[in-house]
Every structure is written in structure tokens, then in C-alpha cells.
Specification:
single chain, eight-stranded mixed β-sheet, GNAT family N-acetyltransferase, N-acetyltransferase
Amino acid sequence: MLPTLTTPRLSLRPFTVADANALQQLANDPLVTDTTATLPYPYGLHHAESWIAIHDDLYASGRAMPLAVTTREGELLGTMGFAALSWMHQRAALAYWIGSAHWGRGYATEAAGALVAYGFADLKLQRIWAECFTRNPASARVLEKVGMRYEGCLRNEFLKHGVFEDMLRYGLLADEWYAQFDA
């Protein structure tokens, strides 16, 4: 069962079929799809419905943990979750996007902080990592704000719109995360 996490302003919860329309509207934005590795553009309702439909299988298989990021009042803002989960190696990739109308309000940082805490404290992960395009400094700042350290640049790592893109890699270890509470 996928968890529900709450923060002062947000809820991270499993997606439902009722989220499909709002998800499609947020994801069908070239500003959003341009900064993500896998979202297609245009993003149709069938994309949203089929993606939501596989969530239980992704979680049950231990491969991913996608969650809806909403306001406490229920407005869908985007998605955040763990991908590339490896229980054998106790690691996961943090993956997310927030609708462009909600950028600059700290939602991604707040949601990422909650998910990182859940990953280390509840899932007992040893390592959480994330990547972002070099041309997306806002995403890099989110990762730095939740304590991730820059680990390097993966040159020509991803082909997006026919152009090879460099990706920045960030990571955080469990002992580094717990050390912040000892200070």
C-alpha cells in the first residue's frame, strides 16, 4: 500500500483515477515536459489514465513509488516519488515535477523533504539520489535544499528532443541525513 505523507501545506498521497484530468492539464505543458526526462508532449488524458493505472503494480513490484503532490485542500500540484528502487542495495532515485503555475512557492522542496525523511526513517534506505538537466538550476536547488550533495555531471547522458543533454547527479546517504539532527 502506498503511503500518505503530510507537511504543513501539502499531502503526498497515492493517485486515484479521479486525478487523471488534473494530471493531464498539469503535464500537458511544454514548460513542464521540457524539464523532465520521460513526460511526452503533448500529454493526453490517455497518458494520465494509463500511468495512474500501473501505480499499484509499480509499488507491488518494488520498482517505484509515485505519489500525487496536493495542497492540504486537495488541489493537485504535481508528482513526487521514488523510482529505480533497489531493496537489495537500499537505494532509490527521487523523481518529481510540479506544474509550472505552482513554481517558485517551495512546494517541491517541502514535498522532497518529506519523501526523503520517509525514505530514510521508514523505508530504511541507505542512499537517495536524483538527477536533473544542467539547464534546470531550480531543480538542482531543490535537491541541495533537502541536503543532497552534488556528485558530478553525466555528460551527454540523455537524448531530449534530438539533443544530448548533460545531467547533474546529486545524492544523500542515510548517515548524512541523520547527522543534521545531531547538530
